[in-house]
Each structure stands twice: as structure tokens, then as C-alpha cells.
Amino acid sequence: MLGTVRRWVAAAVMGTLLAGCGSTAGTAGEEGKAGPRTDVKVEPIRAARSVTDAKGVTVTTKAAPRRVVCLVALCDDMLAELGMEPAATNSRLLAHPAFLGKAKAARIPVVPGGFLAPEAEAILSHEPDLVIGLEDTHGKLAPALKGATVFWPVQPESWEDSVGYLRDLAALTGRTRQGEAAEKAFRTKLAKAESARSGKTALIIFGSDENFGVATPGNDVVAGLFPKIAHYPWKSRGVEGTYSMEEILAADVEVMFVETLSFGGPSDGKLSDKLAANPLWSRIPAVRNGDVHEVDSEVWAKGRGTRSLGIVLDEATAALA
Fold first, then answer.
1. Which of helix, strand or coil describes residue 192?
2. What is the torsional sign of CA 133, 66, 104, 164?
């Protein structure tokens, strides 16, 4: 249920109704190790009418896409990095001040049906050149969109995937310079965070009520960054696995990041406040020392693009210092 909550609410973590996103995103990260240092070098991006992404999906457009409908926040993030806005979206990510802000984001049309069931007719009413959605959630829309537009199913599992998708979209839109600049900025920020890696034990938890889950590398793009910037001993336990409060207490977590998830509307309270009812909660070092940080789930859980991940790095490194 916890993994289901994660996906339902957010498109967030890999955006499906199942917990666990399938394949993993790097052995080093899953073992809680930092892995190889990030290379800040950015290869040139060349404009193209057809690209094949890291998952083997080939996307071909007749001309550079200008009207893009976003069914997943990664799409909004990429467009923002390329200096574009979606023709329509079902994400609230753009309301964040690092993107468009509330006033400008409110002018972007919203696709009815929500993340789980966006309406095909409504999507097509915006006359999109390209529609970007999660493969395991929105793939079922492909037949309804075929012949009317191009549908690109994405499935990011690591920051490298996110960078790859950005490069591919930059090539398709012809915004190669913007794509290279965004990739360079993110790689530079990640490399800087790695060079000042904290020895503190960190944890990211998510949930909508007193139930919670632990974000792990391989199942969560943001969690995949954390072994590079802190001690992050949490491993994926598959579709049904999770961690108990007793295990978290035993790990001596020093800094905790909390994502309060909600189903469409405003949250009815912070997850950290609800977990305070558990007698073990107050014994966790991060709680005792006031190092529990409620974060924006639109960015941390759902964004998954280079701009969102850059915000995560800024916030996380500040808290871990």
C-alpha cells in the first residue's frame, strides 16, 4: 500500500499503481555507496527529428515540437530547462517559485482526469505535437493518441535517465544550447555536492498518514542521489518490502527528509506530525536534534528532472552540512 500511495499521489516516484519501479538504477547506489564521481563534461547535443532514448523507445516528429502536453512532472521540468511551457499539464510542479510561480502556472491549462486517468480527448483538444507520460501509467493512452499526435512514454529510474531524457527532448525541439547548459549546471552542482559529501546518516520517508515508506535507490530518482552526498544505507526491498520504525531507530538517522503526499487536493497535515504519535519517533536522533525537514513533494517526489534534482541538492546539502 505504501508503494501504491507513492505512485498514486505523485506520478511521483515512478508513477504507477505498483510499488517498485521494476528494474534498478545502479548497484553502487543500492548498496549505499557513492559510486563513481560525476563527470561534469557535457557532450554536444545535435538537433534531430528522431531519437532513441535509453529505454530503447524511438520518438520521431515531423518538425520541432512546440505544443507539448505533459502527463508527468518530468516533462514540465524538462520544458522549463529548455525555456518552454507545456500546452497543458496535470502537474503542480510549475507553481514552485523556481519554475513559473503560482500566478504564471495558473495560466497553464490542466488536463482533466488527474495523473491516473487523463482524458485522451482533452489531451488532443490542445493540438499537441508531442505528449509525454509515464510508460507504466499512461502507456494505455497510446492507441487513443495514435495518428493524432506523437506519444513518448518515459520511465526514469536514475538521474542519468533524467539527463538522457532532457538531451533527447533538446534534440527534438532544437533547443540544444539550452539542454547543454541545463545538463552542465546539474552535473556541476552534483559534483560539488559529492566533493563535500557528508558523513551523516540520512533518510527520506514518504506517506500520507501515519503509514510511511522509505525512498530507496533504484526505486526513487532522488534517493539514488543520496549515497553520493551522505551515508544512505537504505536498500530496496521490492514491491512489498518496507522498513519499520524500529529499524530506522536502530540506524541512528541524523538527518531526515519527509515528503507528505496528498491525493490531488491539499494535504490534511504533515506526515512528521502524524508520526510523532509513535513513541519511537522521538527517540530518533534526527527528531531529538530538530533535523527533520518537511520538503516539497512536488519537487522531491514528482519532479525528477534536472531542475528539480538541483533544488533537492541545494536543500539536502544545506541540511546535511
1. helix
2. positive
**Cβ-based neighbours of 49, under 8 Å, separated by 6 or more:** 60, 61, 62, 63, 172
Query: Which of these, 262, 71, 35, 255, lies nearest to 153 by C-alpha position?
Result: 71
pLDDT more than 70, % of the chain: 88
Kindly tell me the sign of the dihedral angle through the C-alpha atoms of 22, 27, 33, 35: negative
184-197: per-residue pLDDT in tens? 999 999 999 999 99
From residue 151, how far is each of 89, 121, 213 by CA, in Å? 14, 14, 32
Q: Tens of pLDDT along 10-64? A: 333 333 322 333 233 333 334 456 778 999 999 999 999 999 999 999 999 999 9
Residue-by-residue DSSP string for 140-179: GGHHHHBTTBEEEEE---SHHHHHHHHHHHHHHHT-HHHH
In tens, the pLDDT along 193-223 reads 999 999 999 999 999 877 899 999 988 999 9
Residue 177 has pLDDT above 70, yes or no: yes
205-220 as b/e: b if 16+ CB within 10 A: bbbbeeebbbbbbbbb
Distance between CA 159 and CA 44 in Å, rounded? 19
d(Cα 3, Cα 199) in Å, to the nearest integer?
Answer: 28
Specify the pTM.
0.89
State the SS3 of 202-237: EEEEEECCCCCEECCCCCCHHHHHHHHHCECCCCCC
d(CA 118, CA 144): 12
Q: Which pLDDT value is given to residue 4?
A: 38
| Phi, psi for 294 (deg, rounded to 5) | -75, 125
Residue 110 · residue 128 · CB < 8 Å: no
The residue assigned the cell 541538492 is 313
CA distance 278 to 144: 47
Q: What is the C-alpha separation between 93 and 6, in angstroms, rounded? A: 16
